[in-house]
User: What shape does this take?
Amino acid sequence: MVPSPAEPGEGPSPALLALLEPEPLGELCVLDVGTGSGGLALALAPRCRAVVGVDRDARQIDEARRRAAAAGLASVRFVVGDVEVEEYAPFRPDMVVAHCCMSDAIAARAGRVLQPGRVLAFVAFHTDQWKETGRPSRFAYGEVGIKRLLKRTGFAVEHLAVEREVQTFETVAEGLAAAAGLEARWKADGRWPRYAKFLTEGGRTLTRAHLVVKARKA
Assistant: This one.
């Protein structure tokens, strides 16, 4: 049986964590925007002076707080807020990170708050993410687009890589089973009929693709 794909953003990216290792994390306050249930923030907390995770979903923030308390992490706190609307200056971050939550508005706010030499690092959806549904995420970027955005917001790219995983199937049933965990969401946003049509017309793939990026404020 073909396994169902893991939900994007459910755990911190090892590649992203590796990019952050050379930074003086013990001296830094890191802002994790769109933190969700806090996976990336909790992974960084033992290494950083302080971590603040922000997300507009109060239920996710409650879960992140429970996880932090259970782990005994005093260096991390979680705040309900809209990272595409609110400015980041009140958090006084030395670094901004994001995991599968990147947008023009986030990059602009990071560019306004970070001092020269400071880092913005993130995993973003690539435009090939779930391309079989024929509907890219509004958070998806191609290589050229993300470079333009970062340049426009005052950053110089130090690392940019595409991580891509393509599942292949022999039958329509296998393709549907592989995306079973996404069915409810895709039915709500119109992707599911497109994906089913892709499979019935002979398509036999399901693509996950992400950009892993580290950029420094110029």
User: Anything to note?
Assistant: Residues 58-71 form the longest helix (14 residues). The domain at 14-126+136-164+209-217 is CATH 3.40.50.150 (Rossmann fold).
